[in-house]
Amino acid sequence: MEPILEIRNLTKTYKGGFTALRNVDLDIRKGEIFALLGPNGAGKTTLIGAVCGLVRPTGGTIRAFGEDMHANWRTLRARIGLVPQELATDMFEPVLRSVTHSRGLFGLPPDPARIEGILKSLSLWDKREVQIRALSGGMKRRVLIAKAMAHEPELLFLDEPTAGVDVELRRDMWKQIAEMRERGTTVILTTHYIEEAEEMADRVGIIRAGEILMVDDKDAMMKRMGRTEAHITLAQPIGTIPEALSTLPLTLSDDGTTLTYRGGDGAGQGKADVAQITKLLTRDGIDYVAIDQHESSLEDIFVTLVEGGLESGSPAA
C-alpha cells in the first residue's frame, strides 16, 4: 500500500546556519496513529510545519496522498488538519462560529450537523456561544482540535495536543484520537507524555537534532530494545557468582550482597532468566530476601536513544 505521506531527504536550514532537519526520510501509513518523539528543539514542529506549508524546506520532497505537495499544495492541504502547539486563535469569537468558519476556509459547504457532532464529541457543545478567550486552557485546546476536524481531514497533525491539559481532559482527548482513527483518519502526533505514545501509537519515530534515529512498530521496538533489570538482595554475602549462573548477564556487588541482572530482549526472556536465577539460588542453598525487577518502558528506550545510545537508525516504511 502506498504511504499516505512520503518524505524524502527533507532538510531545513535557517538563516544563520542552524539546521533544524537533516535529510529526513519518513513514510506514514494510512489509518495509523504515529507518534513522533524527541526532546525540545529536535525538529518535530519544523517537520510538521514543512508538511502543512508553514515552513519552506531547504531541500527534499514531500508527497501526500500519492501527489507532490509542492506542485499541488492547495488541493492537498485541504485534506490535512493541524492542531498547533500554540494556543493562538480568534479569542473574541464564540466557539461555534470559530469552528464553522474553519470549515469554510477550506471551501466546504456549511454542515451544522457535523459541527454539532464535533463539538459534542469534545464536550464543547455547551460552550458553543462562549467566547474562546473565556475558556480554560484545556478547553481552548479542544477548540483547536475541533477547528482542525471541521473540514474532515484525512491526515491530522497534533503538535503536543495535551500540553498543559489536566488528566481528565487528556483522557477525553485520547479517546477522541482513537475514535478519529476508527473513522479512518491518519493521526501524527508529537507528545512529551511518552506513556501516552506507548499506549496509543501503532508506530513510533524518534528524532534528535533534526535526524530520525529510529522508526518502528511500537511492539517491535519494545521487543528489540527492551531490557529487564533485576536486583536480588541476598540473605548472606557470597564471594563469587555461582558457576551455574556464570552464563547469565549477572554482576555481584562489592560487598557480595546483591546480584544484578541486566538482559533479556523485551519479549519475556529477561523475566524467564530472573525466574531461573531464583531457582538455581534456591537449589544451591543461597537465600535471598528481596527482588527489585524493572522492565524497560518506551521512555527508557527514548532516553537511551536521545542521549546517544544509537547513532543511526533504520527508518521503516
UniProtKB/TrEMBL annotation:
Keywords: ATP-binding, Nucleotide-binding, Transport. It holds the Pfam family ABC_tran. GO terms for molecular function: ATP binding; ATP hydrolysis activity. CDD domains: ABC_DR_subfamily_A. PROSITE patterns: ABC_TRANSPORTER_1 (PS00211), ABC_TRANSPORTER_2 (PS50893). The keyword Transport applies. The keyword Transport applies. Residues 5-234 form the ABC transporter domain. It comes from the Bacteria. This is ABC-2 type transport system ATP-binding protein. The lineage of its organism: Bacteria, Pseudomonadati, Pseudomonadota, Alphaproteobacteria, Sphingomonadales.
